[in-house]
């Protein structure tokens, strides 16, 4: 994973509480200690990156993390501000940052803003990821060769995956409306898309640009050379079942998914107490589920042991990273 200097994105996702943040933070530390300028970003509305690094990372800007060999930054993306005002403020900010603010105002006339006031689930994550991608294209952040995302829990992630298609079809429809604008069916066509009165789009090229921006996120999610989604799970039937559903959805969406990280596996012991023996049996059952699942069994399995102490701070993350990410 550390091979090559081409920029690579890693999305760490899975059921809530399975250890995504610890795994994402330890991977980022491992990359930084392998010579990669790295940034780790949380897009989970309930951030725990600060707790994981034992450092205040709030504020919405990348914060340097000390104690690693290469530059390591961490960012807790503020999803609240991305969607404040019901979503349109975030979209406006995003489009402003892309130099498309004027177009937003024009689209606002078309009640595009209303569409954004009721964004579909997962919109905030798309905005957050697009914002980060934009930020990383700026010269001051071009140094990062590894980008690690601590994503939102599974439900959000799944919705996120279908979002670019929604945007694609909505904007695609708008572009078609533009093509039909001189025909008598224009009004009906526009109403069917926007539910409002006809207004002519006079910025078709910019609309295409916006369409391109939304596709950027989806393109990243479909590029096996630039991106990988790593599923984190724990050896319980519930977590494995949810991971199997996530894996199927990722496959369906053609998101590059090659690894399954099985976290909190009991370390070997020759003298289990009754409780540990029961737990071990339960974990073996869950592992069998993984082995027999048609999707999960195709992934390469990474074992991460259950540590006897909470993983917090760079030295602990370094220890965890060295034991997991070989
Ligand atoms: N392998 C492990 N050994 C011991 N403790 C662990 C391990 N992995 C994670 N933990 C602990 O489990 C707790 C939850 O971990 P973490 O916050 O990384 O999970 P998460 O999946 O990101 O949670 P959320 O979905 O709430 O964001 C933390 O206290 C963390 O230190």
TrEMBL record:
Which keywords appear in this protein's UniProt record, sorted alphabetically?
ATP-binding, Hydrolase, Nucleotide-binding, Transit peptide
Per its UniProt record, what Gene3D superfamilies does this chain match?
Answer: P-loop containing nucleotide triphosphate hydrolases
Organism of origin: Punica granatum
Q: Does the keyword Transit peptide apply?
A: yes
Q: Which Pfam families match?
A: ArsA_ATPase
Write the protein's name: ArsA/GET3 Anion-transporting ATPase-like domain-containing protein
Q: Where is the ArsA/GET3 Anion-transporting ATPase-like domain?
A: 8-324
* Protein family per UniProt: Belongs to the arsA ATPase family.
Q: Which is a Gene Ontology cellular component entry for this protein? A: GET complex
Q: Which GO terms describe its biological process?
A: tail-anchored membrane protein insertion into ER membrane
